[in-house]
Amino acid sequence: MRAVFSGKQKGTSVQWVKVTVRPVEIKGEFNLQFSYFDEKKDITKNYPLAEAVHKVNGLLALPFRNLFVESNAGNVQVNFSKKGKALVKESKSAAAPTPPNLAHDRDKPRLLSDENARPFLQMVGIMTQDGRIRADMQRKYKQINEFLRLLDETASFEAWSGEPIHITDFGCGNAYLTFAIYFYLHDILKLKTHVTGVDVNADLIERHQKKVESLGWEQLSFQVNRITDYQPDISPDIVIALHACDTATDDALAKGIQWGSKVIVCAPCCQHELQEQLSKFPVPDQMLPVFQDGILSERMGDILTDTFRATILRIMGYRTDVVQFVPIEHTAKNLMIRCLKTTQTGNKRWVDEYRKLKSFWKVTPYLERLLGKNHAQYFTESN
Ligand SMILES: C[S@@+](CC[C@H](N)C(=O)[O-])C[C@H]1O[C@@H](n2cnc3c(N)ncnc32)[C@H](O)[C@@H]1O
């Protein structure tokens, strides 16, 4: 049904951060589809079975750290320890075998479905007691599912070792996403998971905390705090933020970077901070039309803010891509920055690009200021 190769064994290097393999049917012929992910791009290739066998053998010869194979009969997971020992975990499938979906361009499945997540969906009020998704919750349901799917793609949960995963959801607000992540990892994937929702809104947090206590979900907790003031005992492996207002997204990104979190996924909200700086930008004649209309200059500010954020994350050693996470009709704030820590800080290409962009627009992004002196050598040329 699916195989995933990811990570690299200690002291080795692998060209790909992750490779996924799945069966597809193309023009009536059975193929295996290989998706290769590296620091900067994704490449997808389809091979007929005879050729695919060699490609799989090639992947098996590489020193990947984690291998995961899902089949009708069950799953096999192999994780290599730091000492190079292979830990093999096999589980038999409890469900009746189903044929794999071979559609080349199949719809992406929702991770939470009306069947597997019914108790959760009813508990948070997305589903009615008679099993219908509430009309006013359809968009939220879609957003949560898509956020989860893209997070899962980045974090490769299936290949996560047995260690507990610590996740912080900043600006959790009404916490649909926070509850959903906990339910998905803890109840569906059966992973050891600690999830914390953080928000400044004390009333909301009190309500969530009461719900958690009544459910007995011990590894899910909520804290009233400003993002910048939040100091957990254990640095989170994963930091997420869905529509955290304005610069709260930068606060969340900065926390993830400072903690060295493995995965950071944010869907930014409206933002104003850079707009303010851009209003003082000496617009060159050739660009005057861009700043003629409010909505265009606002969009320009948004694009620049997220470009600066993505470039800073790349400088900080994160494989970063900026993607659309739901169609625009679900929310206009449909951009996602997702990042996986893969390398050292200070890659020259990103440093150069960042400095040029900054010097052209004559601004200092808020995220740069948050990261402060510790990383100043990347952001500003020393004289
Ligand atoms: C637009 S809501 C999004 C809520 C939720 N993540 C969602 O998508 O449904 C933004 C939330 O961020 C919280 N927030 C804004 N700035 C914050 C900060 N500096 N520290 C903590 N929470 C913050 C607000 O209280 C609000 O609940």
Plain-language structure description:
This protein is an alpha/beta fold and 383 residues long. The chain folds into two domains: 91 residues, no CATH class; 262 residues, 3-Layer(aba) Sandwich (Rossmann fold), CATH 3.40.50.150. Helix content is 33%, strand content 24%. The chain is built from eleven helices and 14 strands. Strands 4-3-2-1-5-6-7 form a seven-stranded antiparallel sheet, with helices on one face. Strands 10-9-8-11-12-14-13 form a seven-stranded mixed sheet, with helices on both faces. Strand 8, helix 4 and strand 9 form a beta-alpha-beta unit. Helix 3 crosses helix 4 and helix 8 packs antiparallel against helix 9. The chain is globular. The mean pLDDT is 89. The site of S-adenosylmethionine has 19 residues, from helix 4, strand 9 and helix 6.
